[in-house]
Amino acid sequence: MAKIYTEKDANFDIIKNKKIAILGYGSQGRAWALNLRDSGLNVTVGLEREGNSWNQAKKDGFNPVHTEEAVKNADIVIFLVPDMVQRYVYREKVQPYLKDGMDLVFAHGFNIHYKLIEPPNNVDVYMIAPKGPGPTVREYFVHGGGVPALVAVQQNYSGKAMEKALAIAKGIGATRPGVIETTFKEETETDLIGEQTDLVGGITELMRTAFNTLVEMGYQPEVAYFETINEMKMIVDIIHDKGFYGMLKAVSDTAKYGGITVGKYVINEDVKKRVREAAEKVRSGKFAEEWIEEYNRGSPIVKQAMEEVQNSLEEKIGNELRDMIERGKPKS
Ligand code: NAD
Ligand code: MG
Ligand code: MG
Ligand code: MG
Ligand code: MG
């Protein structure tokens, strides 16, 4: 069973006199900077240049400085710039200023696991990976809660890396619900496999396939949209709150029987084989290689696919129906 840590396992003492540099002020960066500051910790925001993130940080009462400035003065450096950018920031703005006993902290294991960043032995390397988007990390914290996170230690030069990881997890609110211990390998691979085969890839393509099949069969796209796409949230909400068994108990007997029998026919052993293939491609590092190459070419595949999605019928219908759906939502 997974090892879970909560508030009682975490203590600020070990980091309260340390200077923390947060690199990046986007989704996670902003949330971490605000939460750690509210937790009484010493935070500096380090950024590349004076753009949107810089202005936002100033508006939030920080005094952002250039990346190398923040790193030079820091004991703990937290990488919250995009994953594909981290190795360049490391090579140009962090590595030259590394000090014995410094901490390099990540919110996702990609760069360390795939060895795009190879820190020297005399630093600690650990991770706190929130299981939710930055704005939620902030919002839950403000209301006394927190988003659960994964924590992992890759390099433990000081012998205290896990204690520091837990202190930072506490500072962003994650130990309030609890954090789960993992490894960089497990976090990185499961994150990629999950988003590809299930969350961002599998589920959305299933929704789009079901929608387009109904439309091709002559059903009205508006009706198809409600059934195959919009209702997904309601089913997922029930699974989220009550589990699969609870969801099956909540739907009609007809939906239960049809779902149980046809679900396994559509998502069959063949699909499982492909999920496994995709997972192996993540494990072998082939996916990371492919993605880095795509990114370095300027992401042509991503750009083309984004355009295709934007111009798709399901997107147009969704945009049209969203007003109507919004009108029906509870007003408070
Ligand atoms: P983001 O894209 O929201 O923010 C990136 C920040 O980096 C911005 O301040 C941006 O100005 C800055 N930046 C962009 N390009 C840069 C460059 N070339 N050089 C320097 N700075 C640059 O990023 P994010 O989604 O917060 O992701 C940060 C880390 O958190 C990643 O490792 C990601 O995997 C991890 N993470 C994100 C989420 C999430 O929901 N967004 C969840 C868990 C973990
Ligand atoms: Mg993820
Ligand atoms: Mg991810
Ligand atoms: Mg229905
Ligand atoms: Mg029904």
Automatic annotation (TrEMBL):
Alphabetical list of PROSITE patterns matching this protein: KARI_C, KARI_N
Cofactor: Mg(2+)
Residues annotated as the enzyme's active site: H108
Species of the source: Acidianus brierleyi
Descriptive protein name: Ketol-acid reductoisomerase (NADP(+))
Catalytic activities: (2R)-2,3-dihydroxy-3-methylbutanoate + NADP(+) = (2S)-2-acetolactate + NADPH + H(+); (2R,3R)-2,3-dihydroxy-3-methylpentanoate + NADP(+) = (S)-2-ethyl-2-hydroxy-3-oxobutanoate + NADPH + H(+); (2R)-2,3-dihydroxy-3-methylbutanoate + NAD(+) = (2S)-2-acetolactate + NADH + H(+)
Occurrences of domain KARI N-terminal Rossmann (ranges): 2-182
Residue sites binding Mg(2+) 2 per the record: D191, E227, E231
Superkingdom field: Archaea
